[in-house]
Amino acid sequence: MIRAMYTAASGMSAQQANLDTVANNLANSATAGFRRRHLQFEDMMYQNLVTPGSAQSTSTTAAGLQIGLGTRAVATEIVNTQGDFNQTGNQLDLAIQGSGFFQVTRPDGTTAYTRSGNFHLNNQGQMQTANGETLTPAITIPSNATAVTISQYGIVSATLPGQSAPSQLGQIQMATFPNPGGLASLGGNLFQQSNGSGNAITDAPGGASGMGTLQQGALEGSNVDVVEEFVQMVLAQRAYESNSKVIHVADDMYSQANNMVRS
């Protein structure tokens, strides 16, 4: 009965982590480029009262007798499905159609990756994120440019005064990974390469490596399905309540056993 209490408590703790994940998904349902998380569980060790396949007095038992000791949360998987596009009309807003991430340089010099393409210009005319991470490789747009055009293949051009044809300023390079779900989340719409993601594979948009293409004047929204998250929230609540009920029942049984000893 004491074991049942600890087993049910592990289930309550796991569902609390599940609800925390759902809450984070819902909180970021309007965050550009956000990738929803899915919590993964595993069962914990078992107490072997009778080992499967062990010899008994008259026969060999096939199933054995094992009592599970609960569950725990082991990973949050990043779900990399495509988010919906929102047209903004801003010439520096970019959405990725397909796989890939923008490469940005953080203030400390390290490289991070993002799906959020709401870029702005800094005081040097370089494209950067809202938090000041510079697009890598750097694209510098002259302050007197009258129009900026970014093709689906990442070629950045600007129309300058006195010129009839746009001038090409550079080409955006993106990155993908053998396992994008293994990227480490940094916050601020940023990811970092990890051992789980593998090394970055860089290429131009639409390149031979299977990189996605760009759409100018649009932003990719979060891939959170609010209805699905509410369903997951209800399931987490029901599982939490069920584990809580197990604790109450185990406590009642324990109390009855104590009363038998006293009587």
Elements, N to C (H/E): HEEEEEEEEEEEEEEEEEEEEH
Distance from first to last alpha carbon: 20 Å
Mean pLDDT: 90
* Strand residues, percent: 25-35%
What about the largest sheet? 5 strands, antiparallel
Helix content: 10-25%
- Low-pLDDT segments, ≥5 res: none
Radius of gyration, whole Å: 27 Å
Q: Count of helices?
A: 2
- Helix and strand content put the structural class at alpha+beta
Q: Total domains, how many?
A: 2
Write structural notes for this entry.
The protein has 263 residues and is an alpha+beta fold. It folds into two domains: 2-80 and 224-262, no CATH class; 85-220, no CATH class. Helix content is 24%, strand content 30%. It contains two helices and 20 strands. Strands 7, 8, 11, 15 and 18 form a five-stranded antiparallel β-sheet that branches. A hairpin with a 7-residue loop joins strand 13 (155-159) and strand 14 (167-171). Helix 1 (2-27) runs antiparallel to helix 2. The longest helix is centred in the C-terminal third of the chain and has 37 residues, at 226-262. The radius of gyration is 27 Å and the shape is elongated.
